[in-house]
Amino acid sequence: MKRILLLTWIATVVALGAEPRKGVANATNQFLVTGMHCKGCAAGIASELKRTRGVQFAEVTLTNQLAVVAFDTNRVSPAALVKVIQEAGYEAAVVKR
Fold first, then answer.
1. Is residue 39 over pLDDT 50?
2. Which residues pair with 28 in a beta bridge?
3. What is the mean pLDDT of residues 41-55?
């Protein structure tokens, strides 16, 4: 149920145009992120994802070790987003497309 609410919220934020970024989000993926130890870790990863070309929305939560990213598949791939997280010093894997 929480996942449905989160995805609904993301769709609403994207539809309302909150902080429009390059491209249009046409995919939302969830990524398992391991190695985070504090909220600062999650915030740093979210910041790196948001700076990535084609990313419309990114939220990372420490408690469930999950990143939810809405992005334009014409500009960035899930594999590239995993690499962004890894380059920030954490492990990541796509858990849901």
1. yes
2. 70
3. 97
pLDDT of 4 over the 90 cut: no
Look up residue 84 and give its amino acid: V
pLDDT > 80? residue 11: no
Residues 28, 78: contact at Cβ < 8 Å? Answer: no
Write the CB contacts of 15 (distance below 8 Å, at least 6 apart in sequence). Answer: none
Cβ neighbour number for residue 14 with a 10 Å cutoff: 19
pTM of the model: 0.75
Cβ neighbours for 51, distance < 8 A, ≥ 6 positions apart: none
Rounded to an integer, what distance in angstroms lies between the CA atom of residue 87 and that of residue 97? 21
Q: What are the backbone angles phi and psi of residue 73, rounded to the nearest 5°? A: -70, -15
